[in-house]
Amino acid sequence: MKEQLSSLKKEFEAQLKHASSLLQLEELEQTIFGRKMGAFTTLAKQMKDVANDQKKTIGELMNTVRTKIATELEDKRALLQREEMKKIVETESIDVTQPQLPKEEHGHIHPMAQVEMELSELFRSMGFMVLDGPELESDYFNFEALHIPLSHPARDSQDTFFIKDHPEWVMRTHTSPVQVRAMREHGAPLRAVVPGRVFRNEATDGSHEHTFAQLEGLVIDTDISIADLIGVMKGLLSGILKRDVEVRLRPGFFPFVEPGFELDMRCQVCDGAGCGACKHSGWVEMIPCGLVHPEVLIAGGIDPDVYSGFAFGLGSMRLVMQKYGIEDIRHFQSGDLRFLQQF
Ligand code: FA5
C-alpha cells in the first residue's frame, strides 16, 4: 500500500507539471479523486483489507498524501486562473467610442389597468365587493332582465355585436347585466362594483371606441336615496382625479333606473374650452346613474317593497382620459409604446 501511494504521488506530480489549462487540471483531479475510478479513491477503498496493526500508519500516510495532492491542485489552479485572466486583459480591449447599448426594457401596467386597480381599491375601502361578469353575455341579462324588451328603442343606442347563428348571445354592450347576476348570487343588502370590457358596433372617433371599459356600481339596501348616490359619485371622482371637479346632473333615460340621471364633469383636458375629448362641448358625460327600477329588483329576486338601490355605469376609459389629459380614446388600444411609456 505504501509503495502504491508513493507511485501515485510521483505519477501525479509528473502530470501536474504538464497541466497547462484549467480544463486539464480538472481532468487530472478526476483521475485521482474521481468518485468511481479515481486512483486515490480506489486505494482508499482497499483500507479495509489492511492488517489491523498497519491500519493506523497507513491511514495517516493516506491523509498526508491526500492533503498534499489537494494543496498542490489548489495552488496550480490559482496559478492557472491568474494566467488566464492576464491573457484576457492582454488580448481584449474596451472601445470607449462604441455607442451605448440600449437599456433593458421593462414592461409596466397599462394606464387603464392602473386606474381600474385604483378604483377597485377605493370601492373596497367603502365596503364594496369587486365582481366580474362574462363578456359573452345572454340577451336576457344584457337586455331583458334590465327591462329592455326586444322591441325597445333603448337597444338602438347600444349598437350590439351579435354572435353568428346564436341570436340569444351578445358581446355585452355594458357592465349592467352583472347587476341582476349579483342580486341573484348575493341577495340584499348589496354593495358591488364591476370593472370590465364592453363592446359596441360603433364608428370610432376621439371619444368613442368599439371596445371600451366601464365600471358598474350597485348598492341595494333599505332607505337608499338620491343623496347617497350623489355622495358616492363625488367620492369616486375626487378619489381618482385627486382634485375637486365641477359636475352637473341632468335627467337621463335608462330603462333599468327610475329616475335616471347623467352626471357630467367639466372637461379636465381643455378646462371647459372644448376639445376632442369632450366633443367640443366643455362637458364630458361621465356617470349615467339612477335608482334601480323595481322590475330589475324583481328580476334579481329582491323585494322592491323592502329594498331600493342605486346603480351607475362609469365610462372608465373617459375617466382615465380626464385624469391624464389624453385627447384621443384610440391611444389606449393602439399598442403605441410612445403613448404607453408615459404612464
Ligand atoms: C350604459 O352603458 C348604462 N349601462 C349605464 C348605467 C348603469 C346607467 C347603471 C344607469 C345605471 P351608456 O351607454 O351611456 O350607459 O354608457 C356609459 C358610459 O360609457 C358613458 O357615459 C361613456 O362614458 C361610456 N361610453 C359609452 N359609449 C362609449 C364608447 N363608444 N367609447 C367609450 N366610452 C363609451
> How many strand elements?
10
- Under CATH at level 1, the class of the largest domain stands as Alpha Beta
CATH second-level architecture of the largest domain: 2-Layer Sandwich
Class per helix and strand makeup: alpha+beta
The 3D shape can be described as elongated
Beta-strand percent range: 15-25%
Number of helices: 11
The residue fraction in helices comes out at 40-55%
In the sheet with the most strands, the strands line up as 1-5-6-10-9-8-7
GO biological process, one term: phenylalanyl-tRNA aminoacylation
InterPro entries: aa-tRNA-synth_II, aa-tRNA-synth_II/BPL/LPL, Phe-tRNA-synth_IIc_asu, Phe-tRNA_ligase_II_N, Phe_tRNA_ligase_alpha1_bac, Phenylalanyl-tRNA_Synthase, tRNA-bd_arm
GO molecular function: ATP binding; magnesium ion binding; phenylalanine-tRNA ligase activity; tRNA binding
Catalytic activity: tRNA(Phe) + L-phenylalanine + ATP = L-phenylalanyl-tRNA(Phe) + AMP + diphosphate + H(+)
Question: Care to describe what's here?
Answer:
The chain has 343 residues and is of the alpha+beta class. The protein has two domains: 2-91, no CATH class; 111-340, BirA Bifunctional Protein, domain 2 (2-Layer Sandwich), CATH 3.30.930.10. The protein has helices spanning 2-18, 22-33, 39-45, 52-91, 111-125, 139-142, 177-186, 226-241, 294-299, 316-324, 337-340, and strands at 129-130, 136-138, 162-163, 166-171, 190-199, 211-221, 247-251, 257-266, 283-292, 308-315. Helix 1 (2-18) runs parallel beside helix 4. The protein is elongated and about 105 Å long. Residues 158, 174, 176, 200, 202, 208-209, 212, 214, 254, 257, 260, 285, 288-290, 311-313, 315, 317-318, 329 line the site of adenosine-5'-[phenylalaninyl-phosphate].
